[in-house]
Design goal:
28 helices; two-stranded antiparallel sheet
């Protein structure tokens, strides 16, 4: 009787760590509620069956704890849905008073538990998967004397204990237990029994015991079947993070499918198979998108939007290149769905509409995760191709701009000015290397900061490229060029003009380097062993190809006739300016700094064309300015 009252007192006095490394002092109230909900969900069906009370004393305890749950929920910090949670707690108490079906009571308790975890951001999982190599020894030293070596509750000291120690091989009871529920019991103990709290044990060891104990009710055949399914990639979207793993019960997994139950059995025995979110961009994207919806339900519109932006920038965007190689259509649909969800948040649409957009985006993210986690997804070939495409795609844009500027300086006999051009891109490469060190070793550059930097850089580059393009076009006429050579060579191409060339060189390269650093970090963390060697190989071959391309462009462009060269160069720079403008707007939209209105046009990233009204509108304006400017300069040239 009252076997959890001591647990309540302990929760208010002991600094227990629920997340594996940090105390939960600030969250003791919610943690105790979760603990009680877990207890009710597991124990109530044992003592009330078919509307009949099997054990009156235990039933009275269920009523008491359900009343405590309602009281404590109402005392939680202010939240937009706290009253709804209180009504759920009151309904739980009523169901127990009415001796309703145990499955219904358990489901309501579990649902309320999940909602509280999301609403109050309660830590319920370890930060890292525990090392299970010492788990058996921990169990033998601390638990086997009562619960038995085999977990059957028949240990050497079990005979004299009242009540008897829990039988971890009781399939019905263990099917309702999550790893987190076991962790809570180990941490808080059970009053009125010999199950004392293991508060002095490290949180990491308590998690090891919880995972180890969870395996007794599962068979080797289940784990073997789960291992085969997991290796084929079928379970990675279901268990995307440790929180999902530790809060799911075998009964919940079984309700989805027998395969899901087998995979749960496997990953409980091998939790290291769950890649932490910091190493899994899609896992991060899914978890953050869930937090975004929870925030919106609470009325925190701005928080929800920022979380949705973070879900894309710091999660999905980092695997776009890899997904492109396997399923470009899926990548495009996922990107569009995440944009639609962000727009729904920003426009303040009804919760039901936002939930529909969220469900669509979440489903596509899970499909993407399954696609990338499937057989062959991490093969050296896939890593090589991804690495090669990233460096070629990002490097080619910079080379086109640099080659045009270098050829111009050589063609006009100002080789000495090449130092300004080379200085710009050399500084950009050095700063790119520093970016790699800082972002990987010192701090994590957020997706929003990355996109803002890329967006602003792209727009500045577009302006500079337009200026240089008009300048080149204006000098394409031989008479004007001769006049320029005679009177303006040393003046107009003084330090100011050369600084413009150096700045274009720097921006054109650093913008691509900055983005490439983030993409390669994501690709590298998803690769292991030969996969990382393939990433290096793809990068090296890509660099070699870029060197050859740069040499060919530089060698043959300088032999063009002066007028043709200037005209071609100015057109090239104008096209690049329009592309940079579209890419800059898209980057600022992805960072949540600009709104986005989707329209039905194909996406052509190389030209900066994306299916949004704002970017295309700016590009159309630039095209009009370029055409008017070129026609004006051409007419002026003819008159001259």
């Amino acid at each position: 009787m009252h076997r959890y009252l001591l647990a309540l007192l302990l929760s208010l006095s002991l600094p227990l760590a629920a997340n594996g490394a940090e105390d939960i002092a600030a969250d003791r109230g919610p943690q105790v509620i979760l603990h009680l909900l877990d207890y009710v969900s597991v124990e109530y069906p044992q003592f009330v069956q078919a509307g009949k009370v099997v054990n009156q004393e235990e039933y009275a305890e269920q009523l008491e704890f359900a009343g405590q749950i309602e009281t404590m929920v109402r005392a939680l910090p202010v939240n937009a849905k706290r009253e709804a949670y209180a009504r759920q707690a009151a309904e739980l108490l009523k169901l127990i008073r009415d001796k309703q079906d145990g499955r219904r009571v358990s489901q309501l308790a579990r649902d309320l538990q999940r909602e509280l975890i999301a609403a109050y951001d309660i830590p319920v999982a370890p930060k890292h998967a525990p090392d299970m190599t010492t788990a058996a020894a921990l169990y033998a030293a601390n638990c086997a004397v009562c619960h038995g070596v085999d977990g059957d509750g028949a240990g050497p000291q079990a005979a004299g204990l009242k009540p008897e120690p829990a039988n971890f091989r009781d399939l019905e009871r263990q099917s309702a237990r999550s790893v987190y529920g076991l962790f809570s019991t180990i941490s808080l103990g059970v009053e009125g029994t010999s199950m004392t709290p293991f508060a002095s044990m490290s949180a990491d060891d308590r998690w090891k015991l919880a995972f180890y104990v969870s395996q007794f009710a599962e068979t080797d055949a289940q784990r073997a079947n789960g291992a085969a399914l997991w290796q084929s990639g079928q379970g990675r979207s279901l268990f995307g993070n440790l929180e999902t793993l530790v809060t799911m019960t075998p009964a919940e997994a079984r309700a989805q499918s027998a395969e899901a139950e087998s995979m749960l059995a496997y990953v409980r025995a091998n939790p290291e198979q769950i890649i932490p979110d910091v190493q899994s961009p899609l896992g991060f994207a899914i978890a953050t998108l869930e937090r975004s919806l929870a925030a919106y339900r609470e009325g925190k519109t701005n928080d929800a939007y920022q979380l949705a932006v973070s879900s894309y920038l710091e999660g999905f965007e980092l695997v776009e290149a890899s997904l492109d190689n396997r399923d470009r259509d899926l990548r495009n649909r996922t990107e569009a769905a995440m944009m639609a969800y962000r727009n729904a948040l920003k426009s303040g649409r009804p919760v039901a509409d936002v939930e529909a957009d969220h469900a669509a985006a979440l489903k596509l993210l899970q499909d993407s995760q399954a696609r990338l986690s499937g057989a062959g997804a991490s093969s050296p070939t896939a890593n090589f191709v991804s690495s090669l495409i990233i460096i070629l795609r990002e490097g080619l844009e910079a080379i086109l701009v640099l080659a045009a500027m270098a050829a111009f300086l050589v063609r006009t006999g100002r080789r000495s000015s090449l130092a300004w051009l080379h200085g710009g891109w050399v500084v950009a490469l050095l700063l790119g290397g520093l970016t790699w060190v800082v972002s990987s070793k010192l701090i994590a550059i957020s997706g929003a900061h990355r996109e803002v930097t890329e967006g602003v850089t792209a727009l500045v580059s577009a302006g500079l490229l337009l200026y240089v393009g008009f300048w080149l076009h204006n000098k394409s006429n031989a008479v004007r060029w001769s006049a320029f050579i005679r009177g303006q060579m040393t003046a107009a191409l003084g330090k100011g003009a050369l600084w413009s060339i150096a700045l274009v060189s720097f921006l054109a390269v650093y913008r691509e380097v900055f983005e490439t650093v983030l993409f390669y970090q994501a690709l590298w963390t998803q690769s292991e062993g030969n996969g990382q060697h393939a990433v290096i190989g793809g990068f090296a071959i890509g660099i070699g190809a870029l060197v050859v391309i740069a040499w060919l462009i530089a060698r043959y462009s300088v032999r063009l006739p002066l007028g043709l060269f200037f005209n071609v160069s100015s057109i090239l720079l104008a096209v690049m300016a329009v592309a940079f403008a579209g890419q800059g707007i898209a980057a600022l939209q992805e960072a949540g700094k600009l709104s986005s209105s989707r329209i039905d046009v194909p996406s052509i990233p190389l030209l900066g064309i994306y299916p949004n009204l704002q970017g295309l509108a700016l590009q159309l304006v630039l095209v009009a300015v370029i055409l008017l400017g070129f026609f004006y300069l051409r007419g002026n040239s003819r008159r001259t």
